[in-house]
Design goal:
The protein is mainly alpha-helical. The protein is built from 28 helices and no strands.
Length: about 600
């Protein structure tokens, strides 16, 4: 190839020498333009001038092959991945750290919002007299996060990643403001839904921004830091919610988001971040932009996911699993998902969730690992604090304090996993090890009893938290290493959806296990109490309706029911252990070396441009 280009260049030089002196400058410029066309398939190097880069982009976008493909397929002139395929000047120093701090803080707030409302619900329902709306305070947020994930993936694929992130953050903040000012239960639910719609793009946005601010072999380290910090939101949510509820007002659960979100907006607005989206030479029309977002696909996907997640939220406590409402919603979800998949297949790579992307082995196994590991995480996150409050008679605040060993060890595990992946390049081994340890830790937690001392539940939590830290970022690292950059926003959106779906499924299953175990356990350990009355008042208020002499039996029954849910976590982690082997054994260091080698090989040609 180089020899052909060299011969072509020599011919052009001879031709220019035979030209008149008046047209020599134009001939030289024409020769460079021709040569740029021949080398357009190679990305411009750092030494390439701005004008040359623009010429290369123009020729690449207008290539004959692309024009023929568009004409034959009948698809609109969608953006060409010009920027995403070019070498990027990554951020360093204070700029990089400020960006990571800003997006990490926002992702922390988004995850915090998933669980912070749990301990505030009693005060909220008391103020609004809205016991029937309890389920909506959590599900409205999670439903919109899940429903908007694929659409946000398409937005990040085609539009500037920084400004898309800021728009999503603004929507999230607006929803938080509505929640903080809510004067009715309906207003609070609407605010939660708006926050979820904005929050759906924040984790995807962090990953998209990270992909253009740090080299591929350095990303696991930074991802470990940010994800380790931000994931604290899931486990600190009940703690902070309890503190605000007891010592201030539940509205601070939402006021908290506004100042920190504002700081992030300021940081990102002032720093120039490379764009991760596909770009085109010609601005797409409104019709073309709407077409590439696949809004009909979103109109099918949104209702399908709502009909799938709502019965998982309601089944077993608000409605019986065999009720017409639950069965009807599941049937509707199946029908809508089938129609959605048919439409996506028809759309091909222009679909909101391109099926060829989902058929990639690494995406399938990464999503499966994410679903199962997240399910195991949330089972422990929800039920271990309840065990502290019921069995150990801790207050909501102290129940959160007792959970801190999980929090600290999870952060340490996440940092170590990022450092090890950056040092050795491999990501799958840490996922395999983490899933194995999570399964073991869940099994150990199932052995807790009312007589357990402090040491067992501290040690078991240290193992559990550390193992989750090892695992949580590896599926995302796997798709970053294996999926083409232009497909990464869509693939990461699918992984985030799998994470939410896994949490919803396993929390619902855990609730079913808990309820099914508690009734017979009460009959066994405290036959003299009214089981229906105990279930009605809730986990922490049973002492108000049960005689003091029957408390030990009720506590024993609750212990049996709660620890039974940890078996589910152990099984989910064991299944994730098996799935994690399918994420591939790529080496990020070798991938980065290959990128550098390709750029170095292209450098001599580009220097002549």
């Amino acid at each position: 190839m180089k020899e052909a280009m060299k011969d072509s260049t020599e011919a052009e030089v001879k031709e220019n020498q035979n030209s008149s002196s008046d047209s020599s400058a134009k001939s030289t410029k024409s020769a460079k333009s021709k040569k740029s066309t021949k080398s357009a398939s190679k990305p411009p190097m750092t030494g390439t001038t701005q004008n040359d880069t623009a010429t290369i982009r123009t020729e690449e976008i207008q290539s004959t092959g692309e024009a023929i493909f568009r004409a034959v397929s009948g698809t609109p002139a969608a953006p060409v991945a010009a920027k995403t395929d070019q070498p990027i000047v990554y951020l360093t120093g204070m700029k990089l750290y400020l960006v990571l701090l800003g997006v990490g803080l926002v992702v922390f707030l988004m995850m915090l919002d998933q669980t912070i409302v749990v301990t505030a619900i009693p005060r909220i329902t008391a103020e609004f007299q809205s016991t029937s709306d309890i389920g909506w305070y959590g599900s409205a947020y999670m439903l919109t996060i899940a429903a908007f994930q694929p659409l946000m993936g398409k937005l990040y694929q085609y539009y500037n990643s920084k400004w898309t992130f800021l728009v999503g953050l603004a929507i999230f903040e607006f929803g938080s403001l509505i929640c903080a000012l809510a004067n009715s239960s309906s207003m609070l639910i609407i605010g939660r839904a708006i926050s979820g719609a904005g929050g759906s793009g924040l984790v995807i946005g962090f990953l998209a921004i990270l992909s253009v601010t740090a080299a591929v072999d350095k990303r696991p380290y930074y991802m470990g830091i940010v994800m380790g910090f931000s994931s604290l939101g899931l486990v600190l949510g009940p703690v902070l919610g309890g503190i605000f509820t007891e010592h201030a007002t539940w509205r601070w659960c939402f006021w908290l988001n506004l100042p920190f979100g504002g700081v992030t907006m300021l940081i990102l607005a002032l720093i120039n971040i490379p764009n991760a989206a596909e770009v085109s030479e010609k601005k797409a029309t409104w019709k073309e932009q709407l077409n590439r977002l696949d809004l009909p696909g979103f109109a099918l996907f949104g209702p399908a996911i709502i009909m799938l997640l709502l019965p998982l939220e309601w089944g077993g406590h608000k409605y019986d699993w065999k009720s017409p409402t639950i069965i009807g919603m599941f049937c509707g979800a199946v029908v809508m998902i089938a129609i959605f998949l048919f439409w996506e297949k028809f759309r091909g790579m222009d679909a909101m969730i391109p099926l060829p992307v989902l058929k990639q082995k690494v995406v399938i196994f990464a999503a499966t690992t994410m679903t199962l590991s997240q399910g195991s995480l949330l089972v422990i996150t929800f039920y271990l604090p309840i065990w502290f409050q019921v069995v150990k008679q801790a207050s909501p605040t102290m129940g959160g304090v007792y959970y801190l060993p999980s929090v600290g060890s999870q952060v340490v595990g996440s940092f170590i996993a990022g450092a090890l992946t950056t040092r050795f390049g491999f990501y799958t081994p840490w996922a395999v090890l983490g899933c194995a340890l999570t399964s073991i830790a869940s099994g150990l937690l199932s052995t807790l009893s009312p007589g357990s001392g402090t040491a067992p539940w501290v040690i078991f939590q240290l193992i559990s938290g550390f193992s989750r830290g090892l695992t949580m970022q590896q599926p995302l690292t796997a798709i970053q290493a294996a999926v083409p950059k232009k497909e990464f926003p869509v693939a990461s959106a699918f992984l985030m959806f799998a994470q939410i779906l896994g949490g919803s499924i396993f929390i619902s299953l855990a609730q079913t296990i808990f309820s099914n175990q508690l009734k017979p356990a009460l009959a066994l350990f405290a036959p003299e109490v009214d089981a229906a009355r105990v279930l009605e008042v809730g986990t922490t208020a049973f002492r108000t309706v049960v005689a003091e002499g029957s408390w030990p039996g009720v506590i024993q029954a609750y212990n049996k029911a709660i620890t039974a849910t940890f078996y589910l976590g152990a099984g989910a982690a064991a299944a994730a252990f098996c799935a994690s082997f399918g994420m591939g054994w790529g080496n990020l260091i070798k991938i980065r070396q290959a990128e550098i080698a390709a750029q170095t090989a292209a450098a001599p040609t580009e220097e002549k441009v």
